[in-house]
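Task: sequence design from structure.
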């Protein structure tokens, strides 16, 4: 390998580690969702907060490294790869932001005197399973797995969008039926919307990696 190719190879390894750490951060959120003990909740929330800081730092460090590489002699192909990597790390960091926003929603909900209904918990669980599947597919694509399917990521994103639309309508009906308070409905839909945003960022990472817009 040339020096530039070797540098991009090293950057790719760091991006994969960045993805793995971001997925780990996301998986703390369903744990936080079900916690009732205040000490346990506070401890896990602080851990997610710490991971958000790590996510910001990783984006900056990889970005600075790639900018340094860009100052060297690069082939047109390597230049394209580098630009795609810069886009990837920006969108991966946005996934970290979405995870932290979910945790903040749950923190606000935890400080209320109300809780989600069992139906809300089940619907949130389903939405988070979609997100988890998307993140796993994204990881496979970023790793360069030949079995990975960018279109599978897009399909899951459509499912998340459809599910969010359905949950939004159900939320209005549940509020009209007074199954929970308006405040609890806001906390609930904020979480669902953050899941949908996470799905958008995952698609952006995959599109940056394959260097073209995914379409049906």
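Answer:
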């Amino acid at each position: 390998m040339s020096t530039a190719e070797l540098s991009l190879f090293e950057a790719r390894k760091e991006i994969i580690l960045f993805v793995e750490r971001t997925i780990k951060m996301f998986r703390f959120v369903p744990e936080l969702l079900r916690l009732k003990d205040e000490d346990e909740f506070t401890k896990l929330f602080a851990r997610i907060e710490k991971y958000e800081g790590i996510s910001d730092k990783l984006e900056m460090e990889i970005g600075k490294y790639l900018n340094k590489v860009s100052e060297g002699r690069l082939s047109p192909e390597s230049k394209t790869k580098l630009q795609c990597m810069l886009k990837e790390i920006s969108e991966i960091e946005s996934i970290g932001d979405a995870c932290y926003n979910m945790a903040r929603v749950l923190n606000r909900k935890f400080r209320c005197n109300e809780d989600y209904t069992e139906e809300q918990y089940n619907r949130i669980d389903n939405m988070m399973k979609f997100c988890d599947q998307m993140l796993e597919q994204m990881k496979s694509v970023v790793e360069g797995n030949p079995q990975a399917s960018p279109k599978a990521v897009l399909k899951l994103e459509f499912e998340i969008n459809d599910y969010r639309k359905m949950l939004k309508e159900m939320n209005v009906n549940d509020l009209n039926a007074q199954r929970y308070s308006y405040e609890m409905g806001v906390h609930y839909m904020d979480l669902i919307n953050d899941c949908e945003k996470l799905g958008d960022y995952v698609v952006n990472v995959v599109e940056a990696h394959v260097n073209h817009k995914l379409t049906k």
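The CA atoms of residues 64 and 86 lie 10 Å apart.
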